[in-house]
Amino acid sequence: MTIKEKAAYLKGLASGLNLDMSTPEAKLIDALIDLVSDVCAEVAELSDETHVLNDYIEEIDEDLGNVEEVVFGDDDECECDCDECDDDDCCFEDDECDCGCGECDCSHDECDCGESEEK
User: Fold this and answer.
1) Model confidence pLDDT, tens digit, residues 57-81
2) Could you give the CA distance from residue 35 to residue 18 in angstroms, rounded to a whole number?
3) Which residues of 25-47 are buried (b: 16+ CB within 10 A; e: fewer)?
4) Does the pTM of the predicted model rise above 0.85?
5) How far separated are the first and last CA of the chain, in Å rounded?
6) DSSP symbol at 102
């Protein structure tokens, strides 16, 4: 049951009580039910606006990603090089990597430098 349906249910329950609207208690209950209905309408409107804004932000994020790719290029690749052979795809775990990724290791399997690392 949605929040709007719950508010409508409360309004129906109150009207089913056949309250004497001249009493202060009945006036209070009626005012509270009107308040709940108004709050539900505001929440529904804010929810709709939030969905629209979220979609808009996702589009902007996607566009910004495209702009970043054009401006900065693809920087996701590790560009470290082996001290022995200057191969861009070859580096030792203990060497400082130029790209700073900290995940570089070199088995020198495909490296022509002749160096090998014990693992």
Assistant:
1) 999 999 999 999 999 886 555 556 5
2) 20
3) eeeebeeebeebeeebeeeeeee
4) no
5) 61
6) S
